[in-house]
Amino acid sequence: TALTKALKIRYPIIGGPMFLVSNPELVAAVSNAGGIGTFPAMNYRTVKELRAALVEMRQRTVHPFGVNLIVNRANIFLDSQLEALLKCWPVPVEELTIVAHSMGGLVTRSACDFGAQRGHRWPRVLKKIVFLGTPHCGAPLERGGNWLNVVLDASPYTSALARLAKIRSAG
After folding, report:
1. What is the pLDDT of residues 112-132, one digit of tens each?
2. Of the residues 20, 56, 62, 83, which has the maximum number of CB atoms within 10 A of its CB?
3. How far is Cα 110 from Cα 88, in angstroms, rounded to an integer?
4. Residues 10/1, Cβ–Cβ less than 8 Å
């Protein structure tokens, strides 16, 4: 199938990245069986632990495996995780593609800036970012909230509500 060719796997089976369950042994077993094993990077609390897990997976399999990077504002390690992935990959990475959803797209853009400032390699091989529902211009609800703030702030009778409404996320 197109999926098996694109991922260079034998069967169209993706072992889901299960938090605290997917480990190097399970990921390698799925990949060695002809699918693609995956794991969430957040299974490892530090970038050092992630690097060690990547090295172990490479020792267990020569086949492709996937890493689910949690791309939200809680993951302040995204830049370092991407750099670690490139350093541990078994062959030189010439092209990197990131698929980011919602606010993860904004975090990805931020990680690009951090990576460039730190002189990391991954931003130089990043060729594509696929944004799925990323609110680059603000989410529709947020834009509506801003408009409502302007209206509420115009009157001394409702300005207290406007101040209250300003205590919300930036999304």
Report:
1. 988 999 999 999 999 988 888
2. 83
3. 23
4. no
Q: CA 80, 86, 91 angle in degrees (round to 5)?
A: 170
Q: What is the Cα gyration radius of the chain?
A: 20
| pTM of the predicted protein model | 0.61
Q: Is 119 left (phi over 0), alpha (psi -120 to 50) or beta?
A: left
Crossing angle of helices 78-88 and 103-117, rounded to 10°:
70
- Residue 139 is classified by DSSP as -
Q: Beta-strand (E) ranges in 77-137?
A: 96-101, 126-132
Q: How crowded is residue 46: how many other Cβ atoms within 10 Å of its Cβ? A: 11
- 25/60 Cα distance (integer angstroms): 7
Say if residues 50 and 35 touch (Cβ distance below 8 Å): no
Q: Indicate the Cα dihedral angle 157, 161, 163, 164, nearest 10°.
A: 160
- To 10 degrees, what angle do helices 47-60 and 78-88 make? 30
Q: For residue 24, give both structure tokens.
A: 């190097």
What is residue 72's predicted lDDT score, i.e. its pLDDT? Answer: 61
Q: What are phi and psi of 60, to 5 degrees?
A: -90, -25
